Fold Chromosome partitioning protein.
Amino acid sequence: MEAMRAVQILNPSGEVTMPRPERTRVMCVANQKGGVGKTTTTVNLAVALALHGNRVLVIDLDPQGNASTGLNVPHHTGVPDVYDCLIDSVPLAEVAQGVEGIPNLWCVPATIDLAGAEIELVSVVARESRLARAIAAYPGHFDYVFIDCPPSLGLLTVNALVAAQEVLIPIQCEYYALEGLNQLINNINLVRQHLNPSLDVSTILLTMYDRRTRLADAVEQDVRNHFGDKVLQAVIPRNVRVSEAPSYGQSVMTYDPGSRGATSYFEAAQEIAERGVKESR
Ligand SMILES: Nc1ncnc2c1ncn2[C@@H]1O[C@H](COP(=O)(O)OP(=O)(O)OP(=O)(O)O)[C@@H](O)[C@H]1O
Ligand SMILES: [Mg+2]
């Protein structure tokens, strides 16, 4: 019911479609800076695309388990999780859980076990490509796979970068936003050179934009000058409904589909979907 209500409010005429890509798009949502909106972006884009007919998998690759919480997927100790896939080669299909209330959306949760993976991976064979192998063994099921990264550039994030074709970088509209981005871009370049030649920073999303400040505007201009058309037209405003939604185990798309947070994530998802079909033409 909530999913239907969300679609009716976000897309009342039903005119907006989110075309499905020809091949699975694996998107790594990364920024080693903490609290910039990686998880919020992963959850809300995934729900928006799933509500509009795409088959979507979210892989929670952060030991904090925030994406699992946001999608209301059980992730207490003992639940099979992404750790089992990375360290013990358990197939993703055995670990993925359907997200309640959102057809076409699945989540591979993270439990606290994942906190040890960063260290345990060091001595594992093919340690950088464990996630890539797990995803490759689960082909054809999904239109989108979103990987929610932790705020670091360690082996978990490297696994996500090796597994993905695209990187989506959320950038918070604040003063230090661009600091540290060089380090992320350098790491992406290293992964491209040595492990995943087709990796592309395809999408930049400006998050937590506060229209009342001139600073937000200046950051937006900076980011647009630097990254050009990789930056989505849609900008996510700072919106209290966005931050309330996870405590109800919901995305803002279903929690308050009329809010500015929901409509802007809806627009961002639509842009991403349209770019995906343009590029494959
Ligand atoms: N557009 C928004 N408006 C208001 N609050 C937001 C918005 N986006 C995110 N938040 C809040 O900001 C905090 C950080 O967001 P989020 O957890 O998505 O960032 P993150 O980059 O995943 O963090 P981490 O680096 O810890 O994984 C959360 O409390 C979230 O609810
Ligand atoms: Mg997060």
About this structure: The longest strand covers residues 200-207.
